Amino acid sequence: MKTVCCSLFVIFFLSLPLNGFAAEEPALAPLKLEDCIRLALKGAPELAEADADIALAKSKLDEAASYRFPQLSVTTLLGPAPIAHESAITPKIKTDEPFSFNALTWFASADATIVQPLYTFGKISENMKAATHGIEVDRSRKQQRANEIVLKVNEYYYGLLLARELKELVLEIEEILIKAREKAGKLLEIGSASVDEVDLYKLDAFSGIATKYLEEAKKGEALALAALRARMGMAADAELITGTERLLMVDGEIPTLESFVEKSRSRRPELHQISEGLKARAALVEAAKANYYPDIFLGGMVSSAFADERDRIYNPYITDPFKHFYGGVALGARWKLDFGITGAKVSAERAQYNRLLGTKEYADINIPLQVKKYYLDLVEARNSMVATRGAYLNAKKWTVTAVANFDFGMGPAKDIFEALQIYSAMRQDFFKSIYNYHIAVANLDYATNEPLRSDDN
Question: Which of 140, 247, 293, 367 lies at a CB distance of 3.0 to 4.6 Å from 434, suitable for a disulfide?
């Protein structure tokens, strides 16, 4: 019994951190696992953050695409200008006109330039390509976060069922001990040789231990409920009834390890992130290299200025900055030359690309290893279910026989203690095996990006 007391209620999921969510309307009971998952996904702030990241990535694509369109620049001025008449330059240009504040007027001007990129050697197209792949990276990251939420809900849901099963186990043991204590008292009163006061002390001690761990089991159930409510965004006092109150043994064939590994390689969101990230980084390298080359563009400009008390000059050799109107269109090239800056930027982008290649190599090695671990956990849990089920059923028969013999005064109380120790340990291991089986399935679903499946219990 001491072994059981030490490990019976150590439920590891209760030590996991819980995240508070925005409260929703209390969900209707009963809730199956699938319902809990959908509620958790609906209100998860992680997914809201992922949506914001996707929106940001889309804005970068819009920005990159906008460079394909004309860019218009307008400058306007308003200020003082000297009064000037045609007589100042005809019949000859006067060079001794004095300046006077009294000879000032006002002018207004507007200059507009428009530039239409024609060819940029990849500066625009490669940045658009990088932004497009960046969107896919963020979408895959959102899927990864959703998978993590589903995994947590599985842990909390089946952890709650495990806590309830362990509580029922303690209640069952406590009931057996109470009845045995009553029977031992009666046998002691009639002077039966099969029981003595030491047996009473042992029964009382075991009953006290059972009561202690019953309280711990209740606390474990309460914490499991709180974890599940928090993950689903429910109020702390909201009613929550799960679709099944029992952890039931699962039958069925387990697919091959190779099938899980293949799924993980083709559907794992982390691998899709890396693949799209590599494409984005490759495009950024090309975009950086494009800065070695000029931008070819079609440009146009219009300039207009007006000033009162200034005569308009109609001469292509002379331009009056205060009173004129002209414009034009031209084919141009803009080339920015630097000494090492572009090369450094190309090297930086290539380093990021190579870094992601290392991440890909690491993922290619470790993701199949992770899948194999989860697969072996599943196989172990299935085999453990079968083994512990037979063990606890036989221990149950042993317990019933020991209690019956004790009731009839044919067996000692120590037989009850020994039988209860084995029975409680095997029954506990049986429930934990079922829990481990479901968690292993959830881990494999996470590792292979398995679509949301319904709960059959």
Answer: 247
